[in-house]
Amino acid sequence: MTGNKLRLYLGYWRRQESDVHPGKYHVSLLLTAKKPRNDLPTAKRYHAVNPIDCETKTEIWKFEILQTEARTTKLAGVMLLGKVPPDVTMEGIEEILKKVHVPTPEEAQKINWHCRHWVLEALEGLMVGGVILTPPSSPQEMWNTGRSFVEDKTARVDGYPVQSKWLYTCDMSGKEISSEIRPL
Questions:
Q1: Which site in 8, 20, 36, 77 is 20 to 30 Å from 44, CA atoms measured?
Q2: CB of 69 within 8 A of CB of 87?
Q3: pLDDT by residue for the chain (184 residues), tens digit each?
Q4: What is the helix (H) or strand (E) element at residue 154, kind and residue range?
Q5: Which has the closest alpha carbon to 166: 24, 71, 60?
Q6: What is the distance between the terminal CA atoms of the chain, rounded to a whole angstrom?
Q7: Burial 129-151 (b: 16+ CB within 10 A, else e)
Q8: Phi, psi at residue 140, to the nearest 5°?
């Protein structure tokens, strides 16, 4: 990803709704180069996931950094959070994100914690750290704006990604913008 200006997105991945996973989307951050290729793992996804621990049969929330393609089959849409400032490195972003609190299973269950909560705290840390410049609103409002945009764009297909088109992309105000992420 070097030699190409990095873009930071708030991404919405379609998932099956359930009691364990309320809402149509898993939400995370996506860091990618300008105009990424779809056939190479040139992006990084930052998120909180909750796999089941085999021994305890308990959901264990953890922070994960996943090397991935920018466009995946479940990615329904994104909000562009901005170009990463030239003085900010990928390692610097990851250091900020590693500091975001991930609760114990007991804490998560008590407060009904989900991936969205991790993203909200991550957005706050990225604003304080100077990665996201001049956000128009709070992290919660940004998340709501992006989710509403993606839901509106994918309403005809029940929130599923439309893979034959450029990825639905909005700015932080919810206005549709030209996407740099290609169709599959």
A1: 20
A2: no
A3: 444 589 999 999 998 776 666 678 999 999 999 888 877 888 999 999 988 888 888 889 999 999 999 999 999 999 999 999 999 999 999 999 999 999 998 999 899 999 999 999 999 999 999 999 988 889 999 999 999 999 999 998 888 888 899 999 999 999 999 999 999 8
A4: none
A5: 71
A6: 20
A7: eebbeebeeebeebbebbbebbb
A8: -60, -45
> Which tokens in the block code for residue 127?
């604003």
Please state whether beta strands 62-68 and 25-33 pair in parallel, antiparallel, or not at all (unpaired): unpaired
Q: Where are the beta strands (DSSP E) in the chain?
A: 6-14, 25-33, 43-49, 62-68, 75-83, 168-170
**Residue 10, both tokens:** 């708030």
Side-chain half-sphere CA neighbours of 142 within 13 A: 29
